[in-house]
Design brief:
Elements (H helix, E strand, L loop, with lengths): L6 E5 L5 H16 L5 H9 L2 H9 L4 E5 L2 E9 L2 E7 L8 H15 L4 E7 L3 H9 L3 E7 L8 E8 L2
Helix pairs in contact: 1-3
């Protein structure tokens, strides 16, 4: 699968579930696992969090396809972006930017004045990505989801 093809955005379908779980496992391994405790990583696997998340929200995702394969997705509710995930092999190729463009446009179209999301302080790549898109830190607090001593940042972007 190449990273050069055109990016097609569309609503997720039930048959995308396996690809969405692969994306979540990929970003877990490349981004989160090195930053969390072994116990938190084991809980992620034991609870099969990708399957739970895709089962609960997967059909609400906007997915990015390249060369017929799902390579990323974004999930939002109201003005809050729950998740943006892109396969590591497709990182920095415009997939994340296209997905965020879509999410921000839809959030604005729904009448919200801003978009909000969270990332963690250790995640320098996501922080730089969002900073370049105009997001600013609005708050910081302990990340309780991973029980690994991480700090979560609330980022906000006006949608004028």
């Amino acid at each position: 699968m190449g990273t050069q093809g055109d990016i097609v955005l569309r609503r997720a379908r039930a048959e995308d579930a396996a690809a969405l779980r692969v994306i979540l496992h990929d970003t877990f391994e490349s981004t989160w696992r090195p930053a969390i405790t072994a116990e938190a990583a084991e809980a992620f696997r034991r609870e099969d969090r990708p399957s739970v998340y895709v089962g609960a929200r997967g059909l609400a995702f906007q997915v990015a396809e390249r060369d017929g394969a799902v390579v990323g997705f974004v999930d939002w509710e109201g003005d809050f972006v729950n998740a943006l995930h892109v396969l590591a092999a497709h990182a920095r190729t415009g997939v994340g930017a296209r997905l965020m463009d879509k999410a921000e446009a839809e959030i604005a179209r729904a009448g919200f004045a801003q978009a909000r999301l969270e990332t963690d302080t250790f995640n320098a790549r996501s922080r730089a990505f969002y900073r370049a898109r105009g997001y600013v830190e609005a708050d910081r607090y302990p990340d309780l989801e991973w029980a690994s001593g991480l700090t979560t940042l609330l980022l906000v972007k006006p949608l004028a």
